[in-house]
Amino acid sequence: MRPAAAMEPAGKGAKPHAGRPDAPAAADAERLIEAIELLFFGYRDFVSEPDEILAAYEFGRAHHRVVHFVGRNPGITVAELLDILRITKQSLARVLRQLIERGFVEQKTGEKDRRQRRLYLTSAGGELLDRLMAPQMDRVRNALAAGGPGGEVAWREVMLALLDEEHRPEVEQIISKEP
Amino acid sequence: MRPAAAMEPAGKGAKPHAGRPDAPAAADAERLIEAIELLFFGYRDFVSEPDEILAAYEFGRAHHRVVHFVGRNPGITVAELLDILRITKQSLARVLRQLIERGFVEQKTGEKDRRQRRLYLTSAGGELLDRLMAPQMDRVRNALAAGGPGGEVAWREVMLALLDEEHRPEVEQIISKEP
DNA sequence: AAAAATATGTCAACATGGCTGACATAAATT
DNA sequence: AATTTATGTCAGCCATGTTGACATATTTTT
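Predict the joint structure of the above. Result:
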């Protein structure tokens, strides 16, 4: 019942001639559902190692995200960070305050616009980020290698296409930094 | 500082001759970090549409996960569901109770082992799942198409390789159903 | 048959990290 | 001078995760 039912009432995808059992459409749905679940399981394992490391600091995933994006974007403003994380400033303020109090993040008043508080990792913050990132990099390196030659490019294209179209340019800009 | 520092202290990957600036290693790290971020942004957008649908039912992501895996695995036991979701039975009990009370999930005593409570979607549950799955299927269909021929296979391989090695056989079994 | 293990449920308490709403301040812009 | 912007903060609520303890029915083991 389930995999078939998942397509029928929705009825948005390819649906050649309704009524009779439709093997191609069912196989199509099956493929897509497996992909959906791969995303779920992949993400689940992907965050598991950082979660353990964070526990030793009494930090959570929210701290990880802040440390990651501040580390990757030194001098990022609060507004920019909110836009990436898609949370409210009150939620961000809580974890950011803890990170600052405990010396992992520091703020500097913007030079051009002195209303801004630009965010930077301290050296302790950089070390924490390294520890959090190491297992994720190992995992991703290994996974991309498994895709074979060309697999990495295809994987990236698919992941990018998974984004809302309106977000793609922004995300491409955020993820790519020139050293 | 950031992308380079992200590799140095970890020092597990390719690290030819330490000391001097290492352009290849930095480019390698950059590639991997971009992949890490693609996973973050991809997952963020991936759950955004279901979240909106769920809000209309006053349900959350936790309900989505239960409905999804019960729908895909009719007759699944509580223990099996706990193993997939990796949460405590107390956490599961809360959302499961709500789903049962509101008529989206039903339980049947196991025939062979009468201690088990086997879980099924009701017709309302099936309809909810269809609504939740539709935008995700559209999104994934579109994304896989963007990978070009062969891209889908490569994408799947990479996603599977992203899992903890010990989980791969189990996950492969969970995601693949014969109709 | 009795004992132990298993599958599930439940009560209670707590933590994290989302959210809304209201209000404050300093700096930039109009 | 007035308004807008960037940020901070207080207060409280909600969803969903956690631990620990204990209860019940059923199956398995001894």
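Confidence is low (pLDDT under 50) at residues 1-16 of chain A.
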